[in-house]
TrEMBL record:
Component of a P4-ATPase flippase complex which consists of a catalytic alpha subunit ATP11A and an accessory beta subunit TMEM30A. Keywords: ATP-binding, Cell membrane, Endoplasmic reticulum, Endosome, Lipid transport, Magnesium, Membrane, Metal-binding, Nucleotide-binding, Phosphoprotein, Translocase, Transmembrane, Transmembrane helix, Transport. Its cofactor is Mg(2+). Residues 884-1136 form the P-type ATPase C-terminal domain. This is Phospholipid-transporting ATPase. GO terms for cellular component: early endosome; endoplasmic reticulum membrane; plasma membrane; recycling endosome. Residues 75-129 form the P-type ATPase N-terminal domain. GO terms for molecular function: ATP binding; ATP hydrolysis activity; ATPase-coupled intramembrane lipid transporter activity; magnesium ion binding.
């Protein structure tokens, strides 16, 4: 490791941001210790008056060495601009993929069994294990290889896209991947930045550019960035190439909103230092807007860009069902080892008697007999393992893979999930997680572009209690010039003056830029003839909506030119106001202000902001009327802002200037001093009025969120947007309701109290209400308790997630935070960096309940949480396709999530859980008779069944019916699942693959196996002759047991099938016919390729016996009877919601879904349900919903009762509680 120690002492100039200020000279001593590390050099730098930097980097602009004598030139190594999102390379694909596949318990187990069959003499052929294993491994490898090839293809398209770089005074073109740190990049309007850049100059004289960062933080609004003060005048390639400067900055980190650095510009060999902050940093993935071109220098490239650092690595996701399968596999593996061990021990106990030595017909050589007993016992143990190995069928994993792959097409073929506007269907990128869609407990959603269309619309404004709506209809005509006054139709002169002042305030108090646009024929047209069409852009979309609203009400903002803002009033007169100061918006103050001077010399301070931040600062105005209107609009889910003003005297203005300049020049605590200055300036205001803007939600977004809540899911909104904006959207989308009590865990609150105190206050608040029970106990419904909603911002989340210090007593805040979240019906996380979104998802995943999570988003800023969640869903939005490419599923609109989870997810889970339990059941039935048979054949490893039956049982005779069942079974009608989301709760928390149900299926399999084996054994104890006097041999006995087995397990599946089609009938009865035909052919022909003919004529001989037919019928009936009785009794006494709806649907011959909504088939509060995780409440119907579609006459008790079905099935509870439910045959007519 190489160390550099360079000590220098030098005086240099530091220019202040204001050119009029005097220069200061700072004496610095820099000790740079560079040690070659991750980026070629890690350095610790200490500067007088600055905080310590650890791990910094130096970038030489244009790769030019600094002037001699200024500082040592140490060329550092940085990565190229290549982006890599793929998982495999050509060289590591086979070993890496094999390693991942054999990490699966099942695959590793079958590999061991295959090797054992190769090494020792076993009762069955190695092909029986090796072929299915090879098929599974190959199919999975091809699928994963294809998916990774698509990622390679996407990476190449990004890495090979052209970028323009300034070299030797000329702009040259090169591939993006060849870009290096220090290159000066030329970017044109609407181009995306290829890496992280420091802005040097722009096409605008003031040295600013406008950028959209939609793919990074989800905000599609325009943001303003500033060029370095000393380089903003360099506007040509030759001028930019002549810049001689170095940049010192921190090493790359994922925080999008933080950057610390400085630039040393060499003028006459004297370095002029300028500070660099996040306002100078252009991030990869952002797009240049409303600026013709820029020049900027690359500082972070490739996988070191902030966007790449916010990506999560793509890991293999495993579903809860697969984890259950692996757990069951371990249990069955233990059963298998136990069986083999017991048989091995009993074999040697049996052979301890000299008269019962190993039989001669086993063909053991003398050397084999003389082996050490331990070696012989171990070999026998392995042979028994192979004999009983079919209890864990590799065919189950083949079937599961096929079911997932084929089942995924039902999502892609769903016409209801096709979006005509986009022309897109749903896409399945990962079919391994289909069943996980039916297990989701937490939904993490982005806001911008996911819940909303990000289109703001001005609705109304209220001035001194008078309400104005643009473009209202009056006397049959649209009135574009003036709004409609809904309270007082004749405002007086003073009110008229206030009205115009209000409109002027909204035309001046903003950061909107104007872009002139011409029509195709070259004639500029607007609302006012002869005026150019104004195309407004801003960092805040609601600012644009307000300015456009004012335009529709008669006051048009024209432009900002030479520090003067121009507006066009109703009389078509242009008014000019000099813009003196802008007091920018921040999330703590929740307001912004401008100070302007009118043409008459009058000084105004106009202020707009949230009502909570404006009302306390108002000293006069019609506060009560405006407040009432604001509250009314807030209830409607509209975004409200209040507007106030203050007249300033010249003396007051001078005082304001002094306060602001002092705060802006502060080196320490600049933000704090600015906030204090703003606080002093924005006071003694006069209230003018308020505005209402609507952020248009995506179609059916509110309905989807409401359905997810009813289904028992918790919905969290994770957004990079401002708190106020996000909160308004949450109200509009029904995430927060009118009676929701909002709990704030934000920077503003933690500044007033310590984080420790705030957390414990919130914890006491929610736990006091709920009495220590989590909201899960109430199933997310708030009939008798306060509904809580939590709002947290990114900065506070960082503090909560920070590990506890050893010397502090703060403790770990994560558990308290999680406890608060568990008791809230909805959570809003705002100002989130992409990596923080992933951290939130990871935190919930790792909590003690280990819930299943789903993340949904549409931009590159959502990729991290999409990859972190159990299920990632991308939306095909306007912000690129990064989310879609990295997701497991992609849908055109947020509304399609409802059907994907409540219908497809429900069906997938029901189908695959039956598939898994049924496979284990039928293999217990298959192998347990083989275990019992060893007690009757001297533990000689003699198979009960023929090799053909052993091989084909799972591959041919019983595999197709369960595969088809797992593809098309619909236990409840699709329309019912959509209309009653609470049915989703019945399958929550992996309820159909819990241990009690697994044990029931296993016991049922053991029972059926005992009935088959001993039933055949005792029935034929004295009846071992056919009609022609022939005796039944061991192969006939085994064939009889196998025949009963195949018919029993197939009939069991038929009894479990609710959705019958011609395909079901064809496959189920066809597989039984195939078994019979195969057995007749297999035993009816002498096959020349076999060296034995032990099955010749066995099947025909068995069928020629009348007692054999009788025993087959009796044993099948005896095997199925207990399961049928159990189902009938359970349905009558303890029916689940699903079973009650199945009964009702049969009662109404499949037309139950016509009666909406379907909630009345659910239990009342407090009723216990079999298979449910807790108590269930039926939610109240929404006021906007029609009360019912049909009235039903019901005779459930002795007297007829007329009941209206809203929500559907409360009658079922009454019926069940009186023990007269569906099972007792209620008569109903419409």
């Amino acid at each position: 490791m190489l160390f550099y120690l360079i000590t220098r002492r030098q005086a240099f100039h530091v220019k202040s941001p204001n050119p009029d200020e005097s220069l200061s000279v700072i004496d610095t001593r820099d000790v740079i210790v560079g040690l070659r590390g991750r980026s070629g050099g890690e350095r610790r730098k200490e500067c007088v008056g600055e905080e310590n930097w650890v791990d910094s980097r130096t970038i030489y602009i244009g790769h030019k060495e600094p002037p001699p004598g200024t500082e040592a030139f140490i060329q550092q190594r940085f990565p190229d601009n290549r982006i890599v999102s793929s998982k495999y390379t050509f060289w590591n694909f086979i070993p890496k993929n094999m390693f991942e596949q054999f990490r699966r318990v099942a695959n590793f187990y079958f590999l061991i069994i295959f090797l054992v069959q190769l090494i020792i003499d076993t009762p069955t052929s190695p092909i029986t294990s090796g072929l299915p294993l090879f098929f599974v491994i190959t199919v999975t490898a091809i699928k994963q290889g294809y998916e990774d090839w698509l990622r390679h293809k996407a990476d190449n398209s990004v890495n090979q896209c052209p970028v323009h770089v300034v070299q030797h005074g000329k702009v040259v073109r090169k591939q993006s991947r060849k870009l290096r740190v220090g290159d000066v990049v030329f970017v044109k309007e609407n181009e995306t930045f290829p890496c992280d850049l420091i802005l040097l100059s722009t096409s605008r004289d003031e040295g600013v550019c406008y950028v959209t960062t939609a793919s990074l933080d989800g905000e599609s609004s325009h943001k303003t960035y500033f060029a370095v003060q000393d380089t903003k005048a360099y506007n040509t390639e030759q001028e930019v190439d002549s810049i001689h400067a170095t940049i010192e900055c921190e090493q790359p980190q994922p925080d999008l909103y933080k950057f610390v650095g400085r630039i040393n510009i060499y003028m006459d060999n004297e370095p002029v230092a300028r500070p660099l902050g996040s306002e100078n940093l252009l991030l990869r993935g952002a797009t240049l807007k409303n600026t013709e071109y820029i020049y900027a220098v690359a500082i972070y490239t490739g996988m070191e860009t902030k966007m790449a650092l916010n990506y999560q690595s793509k890991t293999q996701k495993r579903s809860a069902v697969e984890k259950s399968m692996n757990a069951y596999l371990v249990v069955y593996l233990f059963i298998l080892i136990s069986k083999a061990f017991v048989n091995t021990v009993l074999k040697y106990v049996w052979q301890a008697d000299p008269n019962r030595d190993e039989p001669w017909y086993n063909d053991r050589t003398e050397s084999e007999r003389q082996r050490h007993i331990v070696i012989r016992a171990f070999t026998d143990f392995l042979a028994f393992m192979v004999l009983f190995n079919y209890i864990i069928p590799v065919s189950m994993y083949v079937t599961v893979e096929m079911q997932k792959f084929l089942g995924s097409y039902f999502i892609m073929w769903d016409d209801e999930m096709f979006d005509e506007e986009l022309g897109e269907r749903a896409v399945v990128n990962t079919s391994d997680l289909n069943e996980e869609l039916g297990q989701v407990e937490y939904v993490f959603t982005d806001k911008t572009g996911t819940l909303t269309e990000n289109n703001m619309e001005f609705i109304e404004c209220c001035v001194d209690g008078h309400v104005y709506v643009p473009h209202v209809i009056l006397n049959g005509q649209v009135m574009p010039g003036a709004g409609m006054d809904m309270i007082d139709t004749s405002p007086g002169p003073e009110a008229r003056e206030h009205e115009e002042l209000f409109f002027r305030a909204l035309c001046l108090c903003h950061t909107v830029q104007v872009k002139e646009e011409e029509t195709v024929d070259g004639i500029k047209q607007g609302i006012h003839q002869g005026k150019s069409t104004s195309f407004y852009i801003s960092s805040s979309p609601d600012e644009v909506a307000l300015v456009e609203g004012m335009k529709r009400l008669g006051f048009t903002y024209l432009r900002l030119k030479d520090s003067h803002m121009e507006i066009l009033n109703r009389e078509d007169e242009i008014e000019r106001f000099e813009l003196l100061e802008v007091l920018t918006f921040d999330s703590v103050r929740r307001r912004m202000s401008v100070i302007v001077r009118s043409s008459s010399g009058q000084l105004y301070l106009f202020c707009k902001g949230a009502d909570s931040s404006i009302f306390p600062r108002v000293i006069s105005g019609k506060v009560e009327q405006v407040k009432a209107r604001v509250e009314h609009n807030a209830v409607e889910g509209l975004r409200t802002l209040c507007v106030a003003y203050r007249l300033l005297s010249p003396e007051q203005y001078q005082e304001v200037c002094h306060l602001l300049s002092g705060a802006k020049l502060a080196l320490q605590d600049r933000d704090k001093r600015l906030a204090e200055a703003y606080d002093i300036i924005e006071k003694d205001l006069i209230l003018l009025g308020a505005t209402a803007v609507e952020d248009r939600l995506q179609e059916k977004a509110a309905d989807t969120i409401e359905s997810l809540h009813k289904a028992g899911m918790k919905v969290w909104v994770l957004t990079g947007d401002k708190m106020e904006t996000a909160a308004a959207t949450c109200y509009a989308s029904k995430l927060f309701h009118r009676n929701t009590q909002i709990l704030e865990l934000t920077t503003k609150r933690t500044e007033e109290q310590s984080l420790h105190d705030v957390l414990f206050d919130l914890s006491r608040t929610v736990l006091r209400q709920h009495g220590g029970m989590t909201r899960d106990t109430f199933s997310g419904l708030s009939g008798d308790c306060t509904d809580y909603g939590l709002i947290i911002d990114g900065a506070t989340l960082s503090a909560v997630m920070r590990p506890p210090q050893e010397d502090s007593n703060s403790g770990n805040y994560k558990e308290i935070f999680l406890e608060i979240c568990r008791n809230c019906s909805a959570v809003l996380c705002c100002r989130m960096a992409p990596l923080q979104k992933a951290q939130i998802v990871k935190l919930i995943k790792a909590s003690k309940e280990h819930p299943i999570t789903l993340a949904i988003g549409d931009g590159a800023n959502d990729v991290s949480m999409i990859l972190e969640a159990h299920v990632g869903v991308g939306i095909m939005g306007k912000e690129g396709r990064q989310a879609v490419r990295n997701s497991d599923y992609a849908i055109p609109k947020f509304k399609h999530l409802k059907k994907m989870l409540l219908v497809h997810g429900h069906y997938y889970y029901i189908r695959i859980s039956e598939l898994v339990q049924y496979f284990f059941y039928k293999n217990v039935c298959f192998i347990f008779p083989q275990f019992l048979y060893q007690f009757f054949c001297g533990f000689s490893q003699q198979p009960l069944y023929d090799t053909a039956y052993l091989t084909l049982y799972n591959i041919s005779f019983t595999s197709l019916p369960i595969l088809l069942y797992s593809l098309i079974e619909q236990h409840i009608n699709m329309d019912i699942l959509k209309k009653d989301p609470s049915l989703y709760r019945d399958i929550a928390k992996n309820s159909l693959l819990r241990w009690p149900i697994f044990i029931y299926w296993t016991i049922l399999g053991v029972y059926d196996a005992i009935v088959m084996f001993f039933g055949a054994y005792f029935l034929f104890d004295n009846t071992t002759f056919t009609s022609n006097g022939q005796m039944f041999g061991n192969w006939t006995f085994g064939t009889l047991v196998f025949t009963v087995l195949v018919f029993t397990v197939t009939f069991k599946l038929a009894l479990d099938t609710h959705y019958w089609t011609w395909i079901n009938h064809f496959v189920i009865w066809g597989s039984l016919i195939f078994f019979v035909v195969f057995s007749l052919l297999w035993g009816g022909i002498i096959w020349p390729f076999l060296n034995y003919q032990r099955m010749y004529y066995v099947f025909m001989q068995m069928l020629s016996s009348g007692p054999a037919w009788l025993s087959i019928i009796l044993l099948i009936t005896a095997g199925l009877l207990p399961d049928v009785l159990k189902k009938v009794i359970w349905r009558a006494l303890w029916p689940t919601t699903t079973e009650r709806i199945q009964n009702a649907d049969k009662l109404y011959k499949g037309h139950l879904s016509e009666f909406t909504p379907l909630a009345s088939l659910q239990s009342k509060a407090g009723s216990q349900r079999r298979g449910s995780g807790g108590q269930r409440n039926a939610p109240n119907p929404r006021r906007s919903e029609p009360f019912s579609k049909k009235t039903m006459f019901t005779r459930w008790q002795r007297t007829p009762d007329y009941c209206t079905f809203t929500p559907l099935l409360r009658f079922a509870d009454g019926a069940r509680n009186s023990r007269q439910g569906y099972a007792q045959g209620g008569q109903t007519s419409v």
